[in-house]
Design a protein that fits this description.
This protein is an alpha+beta fold and 207 residues long. It has 3 helices and 12 strands; from the N terminus they run ααββββββββββββα. The strands form 3 sheets. The protein has a 5-stranded antiparallel beta sheet, with no helix packed on it. It is elongated, with a radius of gyration of 23 Å. It starts with a helix and ends in a 10-residue tail after the last helix.
């Protein structure tokens, strides 16, 4: 609010009242969102939005690749909003780049389509749950599976899986295990894991 008052060219009590009245009317009309008592930002509906594909990095942040833009849109980890690598998403641009070579920064507001990618990871089995630690750095979080649904999976097994859902408020995405490759460290297991990670044909027959 102080910045808006200063930009208006006046700092009298009357000028502050006028500026506040204008801002409050913008809040009521949905053009502006209130962050705190004296801080505001343009509402998401007023910001430029695009559809693109997520390229996630090891920190959990992401870049959204948009066909019509020359540069990707950077999305901080806190603004990824349950999107995953390869997903098609809608992203709004909240901050334009100010220096050549920098990316604009935005927030992912919705997932249009899950990628359906196949991944490989190592299972950590507890009494009621299985958490899989993905091999890929593109998935910097564990994936949850129900132990009841996959009773044959053993602790330390390498498994092939896909992510099926990730809801707001859930710490981990959920998925389905499509194959169990065998114990981590076994030569044949690791060979199959590499092939599966790249979605290439692999076999499970063992001598």
């Amino acid at each position: 609010m102080k910045q808006l008052v200063a930009a208006s060219g006046g700092n009298s009590r009357d000028a502050r009242y006028v500026v506040r009245d204008v801002v409050e009317s913008l809040v009521e009309s949905g053009v502006v969102e209130r962050l705190s008592r004296d801080k505001f930002q343009l509402s998401m509906a007023q910001l430029p939005r695009y559809e693109g594909v997520v390229d996630m990095i090891g920190s959990g942040a992401a870049y959204v690749q948009v066909e019509e833009l020359d540069s990707d849109i950077y999305v901080n980890q806190r603004n990824v909003n349950c999107a995953l690598d390869g997903d098609r998403v809608v992203v709004v641009v909240q901050r334009q780049s100010t220096r050549e070579g920098d990316c604009p920064e935005g927030t992912i507001v919705s997932v249009v389509e899950r990628s359906g990618k196949q991944y490989v990871g190592v299972a950590e089995v507890s009494r009621s749950a299985i958490f899989v630690h993905p091999d890929s750095r593109k998935l910097p979080m564990d994936i949850f599976f129900s132990r009841k649904q996959y009773p044959s999976v053993k602790d330390g097994d390498k498994v092939v899986f896909r992510i099926t859902d990730w809801q707001q408020g859930d710490k981990s995405p959920r998925g389905e295990i499509t194959d169990v490759l065998g114990p981590q460290g076994d030569n044949e297991t690791e060979m199959h894991a590499i092939l599966a990670e790249f979605d290439l044909p692999y076999h499970f027959e063992r001598d």
